[in-house]
Write a structure and sequence with these properties.
377 residues, alpha/beta, Aspartate Aminotransferase, domain 2, Aspartate Aminotransferase, domain 1, 2 domains, eight-stranded mixed β-sheet, four-stranded antiparallel β-sheet, 12 helices, binds pyridoxal-5'-phosphate
Length: 377
């Protein structure tokens, strides 16, 4: 096929449901064109209802901003150390550095590709022995697959270290029936353009503690004290979500469940058509784990095969991407400590994310599968 006349297939592109523009139009008609308004409150309340478990949600301008505020709420400050899953997107770790604190990376385990309970405990014990107890733990449900929630939170509470649950990729996932985004002392969501629902850009902070929501909104709106003039006793941020983008979010909430169903269908399609090959392995859900399958990812048997598939797809105008490069391998974090077992390095070498949008047609999926089959043959 010729690149010029074949439609581009994206890894994960925005997918509007249809009612988003009604909420946006209403915002214009009522002149709520500001970082507050009925759509912001409505979107927060939609998310609170969806997540259940007494969730309190603060809608913000990005998931990264939400992580920054989450760390502030947990008291992370200059000179602290924060444990962070190494296999993640850089936005999980960057806010640690914004605060003058230091990331300490922890490797993954095989069953979920997320933070390894054994390595986590080794890291905590070692840091405590060295007189530097970690201030927080950042866990990630990468590609929508829940991490080992029970094991990780058991360790965190045994050592009394709070958890920031990065659920940016996992809205719609659950662990033993409980929604991801409700496990951490503070959790965060992202509504960036490539996520399972999008507001074009945006994020949210989630907590069972309503004080965390209130404090997050206070900090996100320039930390203005209660006074008729502008009065400040703390450093603030401009991180609140706008009423326009929240309108997009309200429309997207109506199609979240169908987006999850479609992404799971993508995964099932790939598995059905490719599992004949012993050179391709799929990440299965352990018992009780429910992934939104934000991205369908596979392990190949070698770096060479992974790159062969990736470049064959690229030649057919199909976007794919190696699994996220672990943070301990990134130049910008080369001076950070890391507790490693080799698993995330290995996954990065051999793993590939396939086109996964909820707007993919069956024809698109057949196109992807036929290119991969040709390489395997
Ligand atoms: C997208 C993402 C973020 C950042 O969210 P933004 O809304 O893009 O700032 C953080 N962590 C993970 C794992 C992500 O995938």
């Amino acid at each position: 096929m010729n690149v010029i006349d074949s439609k581009r297939i994206w890894l994960s592109s925005p997918h509007m449901g249809g009612t988003e523009q009604n909420f946006v139009r209403e915002a214009f008609e009522t002149n709520w064109v500001a970082p507050l308004g009925p759509n912001v409150n409505g979107f927060e309340s939609d998310l609170e209802t969806y997540l259940e478990n007494d969730s309190n949600v603060a809608a913000l301008s990005s998931g990264t901003g939400a992580l920054h505020l989450a760390l502030i709420l947990l008291g992370v400050t200059n000179g602290d150390e924060v444990l962070c899953q190494s296999m993640t997107f850089a936005a999980s770790a960057n806010p640690i550095v914004y605060l003058g604190a230091k990331p300490v990376f922890v490797d993954s385990e095989r069953d979920t590709w997320n933070i390894c309970p054994e390595q986590l405990e080794i890291a905590i014990k070692d840091k405590i022995a060295k007189g530097k107890k970690p201030k927080a733990i950042i866990t990630v449900h990468l590609y929508g697959m829940p991490y080992q929630v029970e094991a990780i939170h058991k360790i965190a509470s045994a050592y009394k270290i709070p958890v920031v649950e990065d659920s940016a990729e996992a809205l719609g996932s659950s662990y033993h029936g409980v929604k991801c985004g409700t496990f951490g002392d503070v959790a965060i969501l992202s509504f960036n353009g490539n996520k399972i629902i999008t507001t074009s850009g945006g994020g949210a902070l989630v907590s069972r503690n309503v004080k965390h929501k209130e404090k997050a909104i206070f900090l996100a709106t320039q930390a203005r004290d209660n006074a008729p003039h502008y009065e400040h006793s703390e450093i603030g941020y401009n991180y609140r979500m706008s009423n326009i983008t929240a309108g997009i979010g309200r429309g997207q909430m109506e199609v979240l469940d169908s987006h999850v169903a479609k992404r799971r269908r993508n995964f099932d399609f790939y598995k059905k058509h490719l599992e004949f090959s012993s050179e391709i392995k799929f990440l299965e859900e352990p018992e009780g784990f429910y992934s939104n399958r934000w991205l369908s990812c596979v392990e190949t048997t070698s770096y060479k095969l992974r790159e062969g598939i990736r470049s064959a797809l690229a030649e057919e105008n199909i976007e794919s991407r190696p699994l996220w490069k672990p943070m301990h391998q990134q130049a910008v974090f080369s001076d950070c400590d890391a507790y490693l077992n080799g698993i995330s390095d290995d996954l990065f070498d051999r793993g590939l994310c396939l086109p996964s949008g909820s707007n993919l047609e069956e024809d698109d999926l057949y196109r992807v599968v036929s290119v991969i089959k040709n390489v395997l043959r």
